[in-house]
Write a structure and sequence with these properties.
By secondary structure, the protein is an alpha/beta fold. The protein folds into four domains: 8-118, GMP Synthetase, Chain A, domain 3, CATH 3.30.300.180; 135-288, 3-Layer(aba) Sandwich (Rossmann fold); 296-358, Helicase, Ruva Protein, domain 3, CATH 1.10.8.60; 367-461, Orthogonal Bundle (Chromosomal Replication Initiator Protein Dnaa, Chain: A). 55% of the residues lie in helices and 9% in strands. α1 packs across α4 (63-74). It is elongated and about 85 Å long. 39% of the residues are buried. The structure holds adenosine-5'-diphosphate and magnesium ion. The site of magnesium ion has 4 residues, from α7.
């Protein structure tokens, strides 16, 4: 599917994007929006225009600008030829135009045959479906039902109803889950999907600028049927990225393809984000996700416990559901902690056990900004090791203990699941993590020096001793 667009079409899309920056919207919509790149032949680029009047207008008024934009996109100075597109022009029509153009060039001295190349193959499709983030694992309830309904409509029929779809909420309420579920559904239906967290998008774009491959970059994202951008708020203030995104977005949107965006705030509050980007965002459907109510929180817990094979009595679900959580991620955190502890200690989960394990946490949440890397860094610092030692396969006592402290802290402070911790620790399996964290858990009350080491590491996380 990457090559579904002909190069001329692709090049022209990029040119349209360039032109759009410099022109007012009415001019662009009237004269350029419905044009199409038809053919690139030697030094000539052919553009199909809906009407003869349009051909005349473009030739007289915009020739230089178009030639300029073409040069920026292809790196070559090309003649531009406008031609009236016949209704429903298919390949045969393009072939005819091609012959005409070739005919015109015969007899002229040909320069070195140098074709601008727009390489569509350099980037691979960025979307990998994550089985955790599917529609059937999303528990619907008050607070998220609108977002769910819109997302599943888009997943079933991208480009049809809500375009673009813009989902916003505060952190941990299911935006990434839903946008990934849309991607998974679209892939299952045979569509090509590009997914980028907007930081990835930004980084790739900056790299492309450095490497001089922005054409490839744009072509890559433009080749998708469905474009998913998670956390667009990270693009705020990054002018060039916004620009790159705006072109890509417009082209996909104009050709009826689906764009889905998520953000931690509504489009109107995206601050620096360009006005026109905001108005385009608002042109589709904007939905928010609110915190789930108690009933939904309990339903989410029951569903997740069931999937983990954890027996969770209803009173425990209710107890956890009633604790103060700012979001579903924290709710999941409680469940992961409980499940890890019950595996470590081989206890079944009762209300008493849950209170014992989780009780001390009420009102004492970890700072939301701490990441696994912070913990790795602080443990390495306190143990006089390098982070790479902890991630390595080394089995000296000192390294093993540091690694186990990391496991213990990731469970207790970040409430991560053993599987995710294994991933952070260079691909160790969840049994190793449970065993390691369990060892620290058991030893900490007996061993003073271990306890003070763990305390020191914990303090280091929050006091940012670790640079
Ligand atoms: P966000 O992107 O809004 O910060 P995520 O999509 O990462 O939030 O959600 C945080 C966690 O909560 C994920 O593990 C996700 O699967 C889970 N989650 C959120 N909402 C629901 C829901 N309604 N049903 C099941 N799991 C959910
Ligand atoms: Mg997210």
């Amino acid at each position: 599917m990457v090559n579904a667009l002909t190069p001329a079409k692709t090049i022209w899309s990029a040119v349209q994007g360039q032109l759009q920056i410099g022109l007012d919207e009415a001019t662009y919509e009237t004269w350029l929006a419905k044009t199409e790149g038809v053919l690139l032949e030697e030094r000539c680029f052919v553009v199909a225009v809906p009407t003869a009047f349009g051909v005349a207008w473009l030739e007289r008024r915009l020739y230089a600008e178009i030639q300029d934009a073409l040069k920026r996109v292809t790196g070559m100075v090309l003649d531009v030829q406008f031609t009236v597109a016949t209704q429903g022009a298919g390949n045969s029509d393009i072939g005819r135009v091609a012959q005409q153009v070739q005919g015109r060039h015969m007899g002229k001295e040909s320069p070195i045959h140098q074709r601008p190349v727009v390489n569509l193959g350099n980037y691979r499709s960025s979307f990998n479906a994550n089985e955790r983030y599917t529609f059937d694992r999303f528990v619907v309830g008050a607070g998220n039902e609108m977002a769910y309904a819109a997302a599943s409509a888009v997943g079933a029929k991208p480009g049809d109803m809500y375009n673009p779809l813009f989902i916003y909420s505060s952190v941990g309420l299911g935006k990434t889950h839903l946008i990934q579920a849309i991607g998974a559904a679209c892939v299952a239906n045979g569509h090509t999907v590009e997914y980028a967290a907007s930081e990835t998008f930004t980084n790739e774009f900056i790299n492309a600028i450095r490497a001089g491959t922005t054409d490839d970059f744009r072509a890559h994202y433009r080749s998708a049927d469905v474009l998913l951008i998670d956390d667009v708020q990270f693009m705020v203030g990054k002018e060039q990225t916004q620009e790159g995104f705006f072109h890509t977005f417009n082209e996909l949107y104009a050709s009826g393809r689906q764009v889905v965006l998520t953000s931690d705030r509504p489009p109107s509050e995206l601050g620096m984000l360009q006005e026109r980007l905001v108005s385009r965002f608002s042109g589709g459907l904007v939905v928010d996700i609110q915190s789930p109510d108690l009933e939904t929180r309990i339903a989410i817990l029951e569903d997740k416990a069931h999937r983990q094979g954890l027996r969770l009595p209803h009173d425990v679900c209710e107890f956890i559901g009633k604790r103060r959580h700012r979001n579903v991620r924290e709710l999941e955190g409680d469940l992961n902690k409980l499940s890890a502890y019950s595996m470590m200690s081989n206890c079944s989960v009762t209300l008493e056990y849950a209170i014992e394990v989780l009780g001390d946490q009420i009102g004492n949440k970890t700072a939301g900004s701490v990441t696994p890397d912070d913990i790795l860094g602080s443990v390495a610092y306190c143990c006089n090791l390098a982070v790479s030692d902890i991630l390595s396969r080394a089995r000296t006592r000192k390294v093993v203990q540091a690694r186990q402290i990391v496991m213990y802290l990731l469970i207790n402070e970040l409430l991560m699941s053993p599987t995710d911790i294994g991933r952070v620790l260079a691909g160790r399996n969840h049994a190793t993590v449970i065993h390691g964290a369990g060892k620290i858990n058991a030893a900490i009350s007996e061993d003073d020096s271990l306890r003070s080491l763990v305390m020191k590491a914990k303090e280091a996380i929050f006091t940012e001793i670790v640079a």
